[in-house]
Fold each of these.
Amino acid sequence: MAAKPTFYITTAIDYVNGAPHLGHAYEKILTDVMARHKRLDGFEVMFLTGTDEHGQKVAKTAEANGKEPKEFCDEISLKFRAMGKLLNLSNDDFIRTTEPRHYEASKAIWNAIKDNNPDDIYLDKYAGWYSVRDEAYFGEDELSDGVDSEGNKFKLAPTGAPVEWVEESSYFFRLSAYADRLLKLYQTQPDFISPDTRRNEITSFVKSGLQDISISRTNFNWGVPVPGDKNHVMYVWLDALTNYITGIGYPDMQNDKFKKFWPADFHVVGKDIIRFHCVYWPAFLMAAGIELPKRVFAHGFINVNGQKMSKSVGNVVAPQDLVDTYGQDQTRYLLMREVSHGQDGNFSHEYAVQRINSDLANGLGNLVQRTLSMIYKNCDGKVPKPSEFNNEDRALLEMAHAKLVPALRIECAEMRFNRALETIWKLVIEANGYVDAQAPWALNKTDKARMGTVLYVLAEVIRVLGIVVQPYVPQSAAKILAQLKIAENERDYSFVDNKKMLRSGFEIDPPEGVFPRLESNEKAA
Ligand code: MSP
């Protein structure tokens, strides 16, 4: 058998300075949907996620909690791992930057940069502003002034985070030497950064001139030691970005995984960290002589009731609360349906209930429930054998067989999952309309054979729907496909085919509702 094409996708790795929230959950679901879509489309997929555990932010939070950094990281990292289960993520690995494999990879990339381009790393002194919350350096010209309640003045980063003045001995990376190569990259590979607005943002940032960046710290020690200098730990972003190659076995670039999966197809990250992924990361890789990833996709932010999530506002939503209130698949569906490609999205309880009820309970759920109940009651519980298809039957079947998957491929290639779902739901709406128009309950009295054909067509459309909704609502899709007795190895896109239609004559189990209706007064998350 020919080897499958491969696909490597990663999420940002989350800082372990607090418990996971809705924003983290959104990014991980987004990436999971892409990974599942690609698997269904015949790819061998590697999906990596994990936790970012070094740096001053984590060290300070551990201290504030009276814990050693490692002990604290172990605790919080487990919560992120648990979020994977909670949301049914299909990641193939979970990386922690405190693992030995990652220390090895981080040291190796540092050495590779030094070996390939000895002038690109040099020792100097850093004197400037640092935001611990962003783990980022900022120039004076980027800052604004703030005043606290006691009238004390302080400086703020563009992200709104306070900055502190840092002076320390530091190794620098000669980023300034990479501007031309980076601009050429954005020009020759326009989809390296998407959506376009982000590419424009990064292009102007690089055009405005790149400064060399500090890549080591000396005033704390929670990090990967710099090879050959025990007074320094690596700047957390150099170590964090390296996770993408640690996860496939770097520094052993001859191992199967690395050869198969590098360069990565997609790094999925939030819009706040594109500078690191689209400027620093490709420059580090160029310097180390390692191929560049193919694409960075920047998603927007999830707000809650129109407001940015923040501890001080008290509107931080925990993924667990959503799953408890709406269910796992419902949460996944909601986030994928509500957020447009690369844009910020909003979460509100009222809207969530409306959306879940209209699309899942009344839309797909009702279609499945009424079709399977009629088969169960009126056809001796067996999928009926169809007689000849008429034009309406053929039109509906063609929509399912011929047009759906090609349209989904186009939307999913750009991670436009809201549009992919709209496309799928056009078929759900069409099929529900077909039920109403054909009225199989009336045919039960007048024309049993025709009723059998109508129910067969519907069951076949449900089979197709069950297959294509798997990336979004995997558990419910599995229930739908199990009710139709579809074998596990017959559930990928290649089975969406008019030559591989549902068998007839076999018995189905008593149908069970897949998507319960929610009451609108159910506890707000
Ligand atoms: N540790 C870095 C990433 C290193 S990747 C080599 C980091 N961590 S984070 O925990 O602050 O954020 C992790 C991811 O969650 C980022 O991609 C970030 O954009 C995303 N989000 C954080 N809050 C978010 C929302 N409110 N909405 C959507 N995504 C958000 O940055």
Note: Residues 12-15, 23-24, 26-27, 52, 240-241, 243, 269-270, 272-273, 301-302, 309 surround 5'-O-[(L-methionyl)-sulphamoyl]adenosine (CB under 6 Å).
Amino acid sequence: MKIGFNEGTAMGCSTLEQDLLLCEKAGFDYIEIRLDMLREYLKTHTLAELRHFFDSSHLKPHAINALYIYSDLFSNRDDSARREALLSEFHFGCQAAQAIGSRNFIVVPPLGESIINPDTAQVNADCVRILGALGEIGESYGIRLSFELVGLDQSSVRSIAQANEIVTQVNRENVGFVFDSANIYINGKVNDFSEMASVEPSKIFAVHINDFSDIPQAEFDKKHRCFCGEGVIDLENYLYVLKRIGYNDMVSVETFRPEYWAKSPQWVIQTAYFTTLAVLQKYGCLTG
Ligand code: ZN
């Protein structure tokens, strides 16, 4: 497997410009670029400069992060201003991806207030409609959409089974999954990742890796993600299942931890690299 860096990890203390240099220096194979950090970068740089950086570096761009869809999108209840804003963000990300040689875009399901009993049939129908339409647009740019289940109570799609139902119904070659160890874990402290084996392996377009602090479920938040080996996620099982189903692509470290952002971007990026490398080495994921 290859090691990726998701820009969420140092977003509170770094910039895209710094992330590029520090990730290249640390040894990362891929970087996942955040749209907000890309927009900031483009205030003083161009996409041609970014392309040039990747052309002359070991580091390559992986998925663009992220498009946040909402349940009424492309329905007859849709708000045209909201739709236009989302589509403008999507086209911007697709054009940027195309310009720098990336072909993946992360899509996050509708999030809201704490959703105790989501109407799963309605959520699934909405997501199928939305991913189908976005998939068609993405195809014109040569872009694949990676649908990311989010395990928090605020999310409408929290389990692998539900994400699989949606992606299977969409039935488009360029619409697949990104799995994220914390997002699977936080939906009820799941530490059995065998359900990942139920999806079509070629549809796993990206994988996020991280650990999670040992805290009560009621307090779960993305800020409790931590570097591999510092929390309670069974990463041995996570990586074992991925290996068993033949996944051999990128594994990208993604945390959103404010206490890391209080340190230097050098520290965050080097530590992110070594802790991810260590867990991949430990569980035999760096060969083949
Ligand atoms: Zn993720």
Note: The pocket of zinc ion is lined by residues 148, 180, 183, 208, 254 (CB under 6 Å).
